[in-house]
Amino acid sequence: MKFRPAHVSACGLFVSRLGRDRRASSASGEGVRSLSILASPGFTLLELAIVIFIMGLMLTLTMPYLGGFRRAQLRSQARRLAGRATYMFDQAAGHKLVLRLIFDIDNNGYAVARLDPYSIKPVFQPDRTPTSRPVQMPSAIRIRDVTVEGIGTVNRGVIACNFYPEGYVDATVVHLEDASGDVMTLEFSPLTGQVAVINGDVMPTGMSR
Known about the structure:
The structure is a single chain. This protein is of the alpha+beta class. It has a domain at about 75-200: minor pseudopilin epsh fold, CATH 3.55.40. Helices cover about 40% and strands about 25% of the residues. It has two helices and eleven strands; from the N terminus they run H-H-E-E-E-E-E-E-E-E-E-E-E. It has helices at about 5-40, 45-95; strands at about 100-105, 110-115, 125, 135, 140-150, 150-155, 160-165, 170, 170-180, 185-190, 195-200. Strands 1, 2, 3, 4, 7 and 8 form a six-stranded antiparallel β-sheet that branches. A hairpin with a 3-residue loop joins strand 5 (about 140-150) and strand 6. It is elongated, with a radius of gyration of 38 Å.
């Protein structure tokens, strides 16, 4: 019969008990964590109401700024078109050319073509000068309709007005509209070439849709 030393048996017993204690402690800790997770409360109705109120308040505060941005963008595009038309009036008279402002309503943009009436075969050609590059309107702004005297009102397809070397332009009215439905009216004066930018949907006297 073999005898193990007493200190070895005691050591093994201690290690065995220590392992059991650790496993029990680990299981107990996991149980406590599970209970704490299950016992943690969710959002109360009052907390949800406060969150919804704050979100609504933030939306209320930001909406005027978004509307102001859209209106500013609409005014900017109206002034840009007015500047282009005024410049074309001066160029046509100064260089004795016929300039054509072409509105492509379906593609929401406009471009310039030029004709030299004194050339052998006068024909309109795209104007390639840096100041007459085609313009694509922003997606939030659209050319709603264009009215040209002698042609009528067009809200789709292509329509154009001419600037003549004698110093006049076809009477033209353009309506620009933003995503919120705000409208700006541009009125081309035939004799002076000045463009009136009017806030709102206006059709000047003497022009018919």
